[in-house]
C-alpha cells in the first residue's frame, strides 16, 4: 500500500542568485552602509561564482581508494510514493538539464531516496553505504571544534557559504580507477534508469 503524504509537500526550491544580486541593497539593509557597499562590490565582482546553476567546485578533490578485490555493487531501487517519485523525477530532470548527471549502463548502482528538509522540501540522496564498505577509510584527524571556536574568537564577521547540491559539485578521484570506471561507480539508480555523476 502506498504511503500517505501531506498535501503541503514543497517542491525543491531552485537557486535564485541572480535575483539576490539584483536586490543586494535591500537584502543588506541591516549592515552599516560602508560594510554593505564593500560586500555588494565583492559579490558583484565575483558574480560568476553565484550562478543560478550549480557549477563544479575544483578547490577540493576527494581521493577515494577501493579495497583490493572490490567487485561492483548493484542494488535495487527503494519503494516510494507517487508524490515522492514525481519530486525525484523533477530533481533528475534538473540535474540532466544542467549536465550534473548522464544516463548510464554501469555495472554499479546505488538507490536514491528523498530526505525531508526543515523547510518542507526534500533533499535527494544516494545510498552509497554498500560502496563505502569497499573503500579504504581515511584516517585524517578532524579538527577540534573548541580549537576552531578559539581561532574565530577575534573575528568581526563570520560568513557561511553553502553549495547547492554540493555533492554533485565536488570532484571525485578514485585512486587506481580510470575516469569512466569512476563515473560508473557513482551510478545513481532511479526506477529502472541509471545515471552517472559528471563531476
TrEMBL record:
Residues 115-174 form the Reverse transcriptase domain. Pfam families: RVT_1. InterPro entries: DNA/RNA_pol_sf, Rev_trsase/Diguanyl_cyclase, RNA-dir_DNA_polymerase, RT_dom. GO terms for biological process: DNA biosynthetic process. This is Reverse transcriptase domain-containing protein. Signal peptide: none annotated.
Amino acid at each position: 500500500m502506498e504511503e500517505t503524504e501531506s498535501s503541503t509537500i514543497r517542491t525543491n526550491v531552485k537557486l535564485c542568485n541572480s535575483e539576490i544580486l539584483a536586490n543586494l541593497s535591500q537584502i543588506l539593509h541591516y549592515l552599516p552602509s560602508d560594510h554593505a557597499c564593500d560586500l555588494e562590490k565583492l559579490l558583484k565582482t565575483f558574480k560568476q561564482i553565484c550562478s543560478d546553476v550549480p557549477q563544479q567546485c575544483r578547490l577540493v578533490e576527494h581521493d577515494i581508494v577501493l579495497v583490493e578485490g572490490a567487485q561492483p555493487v548493484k542494488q535495487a531501487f527503494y519503494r516510494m510514493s507517487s508524490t515522492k517519485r514525481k519530486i525525484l523525477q523533477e530533481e533528475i530532470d534538473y540535474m540532466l538539464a544542467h549536465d550534473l548527471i548522464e544516463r548510464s549502463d554501469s555495472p554499479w548502482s546505488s538507490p536514491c531516496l528523498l530526505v525531508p528538509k526543515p523547510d518542507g522540501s526534500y533533499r535527494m540522496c544516494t545510498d552509497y553505504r554498500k560502496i563505502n564498505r569497499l573503500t579504504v577509510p581515511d584516517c585524517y584527524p578532524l579538527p577540534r571544534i573548541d580549537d576552531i571556536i578559539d581561532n574565530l574568537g577575534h573575528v568581526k564577521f563570520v560568513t557561511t557559504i553553502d553549495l547547492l547540491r554540493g555533492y554533485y559539485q565536488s570532484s571525485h578521484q578514485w585512486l587506481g580507477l580510470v575516469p569512466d570506471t569512476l563515473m560508473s561507480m557513482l551510478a545513481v539508480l532511479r526506477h529502472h534508469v541509471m545515471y552517472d555523476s559528471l563531476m
